[in-house]
Design brief:
The chain is of the alpha/beta class. A hairpin with a 2-residue loop joins strand 11 and strand 12. It is 45% helix and 17% strand. The longest helix has 21 residues.
């Protein structure tokens, strides 16, 4: 370890490990540490481990294997250990099996990866004390619809999709939102994915007069469309969803391509945290930073609960929490009060926030 890096990391942990409570907070960590999702579970384990060290918190980490049986077994272990709160959970099967047990034990949960909408939508019926530190399944398509309807209200836009469930749903949500705003696309169609070129589709878009096109599909297809549009001098700006986060194959994205997606958390995290991750040789990607933030929230909510006398579930609701990935607030259902999705523009090298262009 480089001396300067060691010093930064040591000062960082000293700075964060302040005012430890008389009774150490015990946080349960549920993550798939075996099976095909183990690589993601290890990210959760690494992020929570660093946060616990920084905040003077004790962890009880259990492998939920991303299965219903694993989730139920983990919940029983947490209840027996009397943990104060549980963080983690990446899979729907595991958390849905765990929640009835954790609810009965009075243990709230912060999930960093489950997007299933019904998990929080059914809260009034289930009473599950679950909080989602990440997007809902419908956040992407809803943000695409609201954002592009606003950005393209004066543009000649088209909506196309690749015929998959994902592509159709996101395209239809945008079309419906545009209709509500009294906007009509100049062209709507389905394209055939995974072709070497999309010349035919570009020709139809150009003929329709489209200058802006949302494509519900994979990044490779959108990259090819951008290339073919440039060759035909069609003057089209393409936009896509989170699928563009994955780098395309041999064809790069066209400059100006828009992506609606959450930020890369390492781009918004405190540099001191990133230095500490680097000092521990932990890569700050995937679920590492959200897992770190979940532990920060657990600690802050626990302190608020103790000082106010409110149950921990009440302390988690409707409060602003400062974390290393930005401010976090949960609504009454346990979802994020603000969607994490943002608009990014490809500048030839990377997707940069649109507002900074």
């Amino acid at each position: 370890m480089r001396p300067r890096t060691r010093t930064i990391a040591a000062l960082f942990w000293l700075f964060l490990a302040n005012a430890a409570s008389a009774q150490t907070l015990l946080v349960g960590v549920s993550a798939p540490l075996s099976g095909p999702s183990a690589i993601l579970g290890k990210q959760v384990e690494a992020g929570t481990g660093l946060a616990a060290e920084a905040n003077g918190i004790e962890l009880k980490t259990v492998d939920d294997a991303c299965t219903a049986d694993g989730g139920a077994a983990a919940a029983r272990e947490f209840a027996a250990a009397k943990v104060n709160i549980v963080v983690g959970f990446l899979c729907t099967e595991a958390i849905e099996a765990a929640m009835p047990i954790l609810k009965d034990a009075g243990i709230p949960v912060i999930t960093v990866g489950v997007r299933t909408e019904s998990l929080t939508d059914r809260r009034a019926k289930t009473g599950w004390p679950v909080y989602r530190l990440g997007p809902r399944g419908d956040d992407e398509r809803n943000t695409v619809a609201s954002t592009l309807t606003r950005l393209w209200q004066s543009e000649l836009f088209a909506i196309i999709d690749d015929g998959t469930i994902y592509g159709r749903e996101i395209a239809e949500t945008l079309r419906a939102e545009a209709e509500q705003a009294a906007l009509k696309p100049v062209f709507v169609d389905t394209f055939r994915p995974q072709l070497d070129n999309q010349i035919g589709m570009i020709g139809r878009l150009k003929k329709a007069g489209a200058t802006h096109v949302f494509a519900g599909g994979d990044g490779d297809d959108i990259a090819i469309m951008g290339r073919d549009a440039a060759q035909l001098q069609a003057g089209i700006v393409f936009a896509g969803g989170e699928n563009l986060r994955t780098p395309p194959g041999d064809v790069p994205y066209a400059v100006g391509t828009l992506m609606i997606a959450p930020p890369e958390w390492a781009d918004v995290a405190d540099p001191k945290v990133l230095a500490a991750f680097d000092a521990r040789k932990v890569v700050a990607d995937g679920y590492t930073l959200p897992a770190f933030a979940a532990v920060e929230i657990a600690k802050a909510a626990s302190g608020l609960s103790e000082s106010s006398g409110k149950p921990l579930t009440e302390a988690l609701t409707g409060q602003d929490f400062t974390t290393e990935i930005g401010p976090i607030r949960f609504d009454a259902k346990g979802d994020l009060s603000q969607s994490p999705y943002r608009v990014f523009r490809f500048d030839g090298t990377r997707f940069a926030p649109l507002e900074s262009n």
